[in-house]
Design goal:
Layout lengths: L1 E3 L3 E2 L4 H9 L5 E3 L8 H4 L2 H8 L3 E5 L15 E4 H9 L6 E2 L4 H4 L23 E5 L4 E5 L6 E8 L2 E6 L42 E7 L4 E4 L4 E6 L3 E8 L4 H24 L1 H22 L1
Parallel strand pairs: 1-11, 2-3
Antiparallel strand pairs: 3-12, 4-5, 4-6, 6-7, 7-14, 8-13, 9-12, 9-14, 10-11, 10-13
Helix pairs in contact: 6-7
């Protein structure tokens, strides 16, 4: 993999942001965007436990999906309080996904502001909190609705790999899915690099490597591939903004209601055949990428 650092700024002028990052689709880390939010100092484990500690949440482990894995199927359930107790004791490879804490504690929405000076189109009904224990992993994928993301880290550190969408075949994207077949776990460790023997096109993939700490906000342009590893137990919030053009909105709609529906049906009716046919196709796509260089 050919990895570069992400530009990191303390603050940014909205005009500069739009010209140099938003319009060309280039990621950037803004360190002080959340500086004046009450959430920056107010949000912590005890506060969340007090608000939603009794709510049952879906948990996901570090195992990659296979031919029989239903879309977004949880691996376990606990109450939010039980989960916080578990990850507070040390490394715990479990993360929370698709739990909208703001539905249960709407007062949290007053603890931050929507940075509309940077972009429009925020989906204000769905700010999302992402929580993980130290060593938990969000495997390489792109967001199915292809929206722009402002991802603010609060507690803990997170190591992130980013790739533009056009690197998808070098990343071995599964057809009809938003996931990569390759495993990037612990990629930053000496013995944790991806399997280049099995996935040789990964050597050509051009992207970014970065670490987010408390208060950092990452602008992740629409369609960007990302792999995230929790170095510490922590949480972050994503604010989503739809692409301004009709093309981006139509792509998101197709992914959500067309592509995903086809994949779900095939996984139920012919899981192994579907998995093997997609696997064959993704290796063919990667081979073409290598020959085109």
């Amino acid at each position: 993999m050919i990895l570069n650092p992400v530009v990191t700024l303390d603050d940014i002028d909205p005009k500069v942001f739009k010209k140099e990052f938003y319009m060309p689709g280039i990621p950037v880390v803004i360190k002080n965007l959340s500086k004046n939010w009450p959430a920056n100092t107010k949000w912590n484990w005890d506060y969340f436990k007090q608000l939603v500690g009794d709510k049952r949440v879906p948990l996901y482990n570090n195992v990659q999906s296979d031919a029989y894995t239903p879309v977004n199927s949880a691996d376990d359930y606990k109450t939010f309080g039980e989960y916080i107790d578990m990850i507070s004791k040390g490394p715990a490879a479990w993360r929370i996904f698709l739990f909208n804490i703001f539905d249960h504690a709407p007062q949290l929405t007053s603890d931050f502001s929507w940075p509309e000076q940077l972009m429009k189109g925020f989906v204000k009904k769905y700010p999302m909190l992402f929580v993980g224990g130290a060593s938990s992993i969000t495997h390489m994928h792109f967001d199915i609705d292809v929206s722009h993301i402002l991802h603010t880290q609060f507690t803990g550190r997170k190591r992130i790999l980013l790739f533009p969408h056009n690197q998808q075949h070098k990343l071995y994207r599964k057809p009809f899915e938003v996931l990569s077949l390759a495993d990037f776990s612990n990629y930053y460790q000496l013995n944790g690099k991806p399997d280049y023997e099995k996935f040789p096109a990964l050597k050509l993939a051009q992207g970014y490597d970065l670490t987010l700490s408390h208060g950092d906000t990452l602008f992740m342009p629409a369609g960007y591939w990302h792999h995230m590893e929790y170095l510490d137990s922590g949480f972050a919030m994503s604010l989503r903004a739809m692409q301004p053009g009709i093309g981006g909105k139509l792509q998101g709609a197709w992914n959500l209601f067309g592509m995903r529906s086809i994949d779900t049906i095939m996984k139920k009716t012919a899981p192994q055949w579907w998995y093997e046919s997609k696997k064959k196709k993704l290796f063919e796509n990667a081979e073409r990428e290598m020959k085109s260089v």
